[in-house]
Every structure is written in structure tokens, then in C-alpha cells.
Design brief:
- This protein has 424 residues and is of the alpha/beta class.
- The strands form 7 sheets. Strands 4-3-2-1-15-16 form a 6-stranded mixed sheet, covered by helices on one side.
- The N and C termini lie far apart (58 Å).
- The model has no long low-confidence stretch (mean pLDDT 92).
- Bound molecules: manganese (II) ion.
Length: 424
């Protein structure tokens, strides 16, 4: 039995109102499906985040059905689990994947989670209800573990106790990395190790980059091919982001044979342009146009790249006077991007003084400003927790500006978690 495993397709993701970017995610998925047809696989696995959000617009659902149609016609099963992005209004028991499952476009696997008894159960997939936690396909048993959110490690222990001693494939939307601040859906390599005793292959999703988890034997047992296309702009700043990946897996003979297949991506440029020491807009324009001209030599005429450019450095004039419009116009003319964001992160190199006429560094200016805003709030909760709020603002600032994280769900979750720690 041979199958393709892909993950984090994020259909319906959009940058501004760029139609070509909207289509990129469908083209990427189509590429995988065409490969599945060409390689004559027995089935396709989607390890979560088929959609960008739980409440997709009708057009996204329609476009998704069009892409899935050829597999349905050829009777090639698509086995899917829900990722955090797929859940409708953050409910574990509702998503548009369920609709697609009922209409025969995919088989949605989801374990039963009983809140009262805190128990997880896997029931066999029933064709009548289109529900179940596992299914048998040919000689393979396939379990859909799904996504467990902020307490993934704890839920994984409960999941393991609900699983049989041996099965073939497990599908899990959870990140296996031992560090990192964004810990939603994360487990350690120790947490996931017991799955290697149960499954011959674990299909991972959630982390948008490619990695493998080594098991007891020499080869890896869990594989994460990463997102097909770049979802969050910071992913485009990483080395090796020029293409996406998906896995072609052969389950026979005993040891699975895993081949990572590359997927072409649209050119994505997420870079800083240093303008240190610039005295005026003309000097900034000169540095910027040099950068753009150089880039234009590496980009094909109809490539229409995605641009996320940050003007960075210390300049000798007021940063509010920096003329971004002029820069945008030049980039537009030279590169004809399908989407572009140019932001101003330049700092004024001069000095700002505090009430005692002492020069403040940029951090002190930030802190003073945030503390001023907090002290203006009437609700005493603010003053009581001013230090905690300040720290939280800093963490969010870091996520957005330094890590370019625009995942609103994660940021809102972070605020909710930190809010629980406030003194009442
Ligand atoms: Mn994802």
C-alpha cells in the first residue's frame, strides 16, 4: 500500500485582497493531488489544517470541492484529521471537514472525548454516520488522533491509553519540538516516543517546517512534511523555504519507505533593508532602489513574487517623515509583486529625554509610554497588574514585530492564558 501524506494546506488564506495569493494554496494542493493520481497511490492523508479558518466563506468550500473531485472520481480515499485552524468557532466537534466527509470527499477521523469522564475513545469509522476514530484500509489500520491544544502532552497520555498495542498509521496534528515559546499543540520528543511502539508511521502536521522524529529503530517513525505553501510571513524568512514538501510513503514490506517530494512555491521575499545613517528620503530611496534592482535580476518576468520588506536601522531624521509610498511605487514597478508589505522599523538616531532631562533609550521610551497608558485606566485591575501587563505587551510586540507572527488565534490564546495569572 502506498500513500501520500501532506499537511497544513491552509486553503482560504489570503494576503490583503491578492487573488493570485488566494489561488496559490489551491494550486499547491492540486499539485499534490495530481502527483497522487500520477503515482497511483492507494490513499491520501491530510494531517490537519486543510483550511485557514473554521468559518470559511462559501467560495473556499466550493473551490476545495473542485480540487478534491478528481480523487473522488477515481475512488482514492482522502483520510483527514482536523487541525487547530479547521475547528469551527473553536469547537472540537464541528468543522467543514465533517461536511466534506458526509459528502464523500474525504474520511474524517476524530476520537471521542468525554469531558465528564475525561476519557478518549477510538470507535471504528461508520459509513452511515461518517464518524469514527479509526478505519481499516486493505491491510492497514489508521488512527486519527487530531489536535489537542494547550494541554497536548497530557492529552497524548490519555490518547495512548486508548490506542491498541499495535496499529499501522497514526495521524496527529501536534508539533514535536523541545523548545519555543508558542507551545500550543506542542509535545516533547519524550512525550511522543510511546507512539513509535504502536505505529509504523506517524503522519504529523502543525509545525509548518519539515522535520522527522527518530524512533527506536534506525529510521524515523514520525514525519512532518511542513506546510505546502508559506502561511505566515516569517516562514518565508527561513532558509530553505523556496519549496514545500510532501511525503510519498510505501508501507511494504515491513519498514515504511518514505520519500520527501518537493513542491514549487512562488518566490517569497521577507527581508530587512538596512538604511543606517541615512540623512533624508533621497538617501533611503537610493539604498532601497539598489536593493530592488539587484532582486529583480533573480526574479523571472512573470514570477510576481510576494514581498515583505522592512526598512531598518538608525536614521538621522524623524522616522515619521520616511516616505514609504515612494518606495512602494518603485517596488511595484520593478517587481510587479502579487502582494507587498513594506514597513518602517527605522529608529531616529537622536536623543529623546525624560522629565529629568536625561536621555532615554528606546526601551525606556516604550516602557514609559505603556505605563502611562496603564495608569490612565479606571479599572484598578490595571494598576494592580501593571508589571504583568507591561511584560505581556512586550511579548506580543516581540511576536508580531520580531517573529512576524500574525496568527491572531495564537495571540488571543496567549492573552487569555496570561489574563488568568492576573491578581484580582
Ligand atoms: Mn497550520
Amino acid at each position: 500500500m502506498r500513500f501520500i501524506h501532506c499537511s497544513d494546506i491552509h486553503l482560504g488564506n489570503i494576503y490583503g485582497n491578492s487573488d493570485s495569493r488566494y489561488k496559490d494554496y489551491f494550486s499547491a494542493f492540486s499539485y499534490v493531488i495530481n502527483t497522487a493520481l500520477r503515482k497511483k497511490v492507494d490513499f491520501l492523508i491530510i494531517a490537519g489544517d486543510l483550511f485557514q479558518r473554521g468559518n470559511i466563506p462559501p467560495s473556499v468550500l466550493d473551490d476545495t470541492i473542485k480540487v478534491l473531485e478528481p480523487l473522488k472520481e477515481k475512488n482514492i480515499p482522502v483520510i483527514a484529521i482536523e487541525g487547530n485552524h479547521d475547528l469551527y468557532q473553536r469547537r472540537r466537534d464541528e468543522s467543514w471537514l465533517e461536511f466534506l466527509s458526509r459528502r464523500g470527499y474525504l474520511i474524517l477521523l476524530r476520537p471521542e472525548w468525554d469531558y465528564q469522564s475525561a476519557r478518549i475513545s477510538f470507535f471504528p469509522y461508520q459509513e452511515e454516520t461518517c464518524k469514527g476514530g479509526y478505519l481499516t484500509l486493505g491491510n492497514l489500520t489508521i488512527y486519527g488522533i487530531g489536535y489537542w491544544g494547550s494541554n497536548t502532552s497530557e492529552m497524548l497520555i490519555k490518547t495512548i491509553s486508548a490506542l491498541p498495542e499495535k496499529a499501522d498509521i497514526g495521524i496527529f496534528h501536534g508539533g514535536v519540538w523541545d523548545e519555543g515559546f508558542m507551545d500550543l499543540g506542542r509535545v516533547s520528543s519524550d512525550d511522543i516516543a510511546p507512539l513509535s511502539d504502536i505505529f509504523r508511521y506517524v503522519a504529523l502536521g502543525h509545525g509548518h517546517k519539515r522535520y522527522e522524529v527518530p524512533g527506536n529503530s534506525a529510521s524515523s517513525f514520525a514525519h512532518n512534511p511542513g506546510a505546502l505553501e508559506i502561511v505566515n510571513p516569517e516562514e518565508g524568512a527561513r532558509k530553505g523555504s523556496e519549496n514545500g514538501w510532501f511525503c510519498l510513503v510505501d508501507m511494504e514490506p515491513s519498514e515504511p519507505y518514505v520519500e520527501y517530494l518537493p513542491l514549487p512555491r512562488r518566490t517569497f521575499i521577507n527581508e530587512k533593508i538596512l538604511v543606517d545613517g541615512a540623512n533624508n528620503n533621497d538617501e533611503i530611496f537610493r539604498l532601497f532602489s539598489e536593493y530592488i534592482d539587484k532582486k529583480s535580476q533573480t526574479i523571472k518576468p512573470n514570477e510576481n513574487p510576494i514581498l515583505f520588506l522592512k526598512i531598518d536601522g538608525r536614521i538621522s531624521f524623524n522616522t515619521f517623515d520616511l516616505d514609504l509610498e515612494n518606495l512602494k511605487q518603485y517596488a511595484e514597478e520593478r517587481l510587479n509583486p502579487s502582494y507587498m508589505e513594506i514597513s518602517n522599523s527605522a529608529l531616529f538616531a537622536g536623543k529623546i529625554v525624560n522629565r529629568d532631562n536625561k536621555a532615554m533609550n528606546i526601551d525606556e521610551i516604550y516602557q514609559n509610554t505603556i505605563m502611562d497608558i496603564i495608569s490612565e485606566q479606571e479599572d484598578p485591575l490595571y494598576k494592580k497588574n501593571n508589571q504583568k501587563i507591561l511584560n505581556l505587551v512586550y511579548r506580543i510586540k516581540e511576536e508580531i514585530l520580531e517573529k512576524n507572527n500574525k496568527n491572531l488565534d495564537e495571540l488571543v490564546d496567549l492573552i487569555h492564558r496570561e489574563r488568568m495569572k492576573f491578581d484580582e
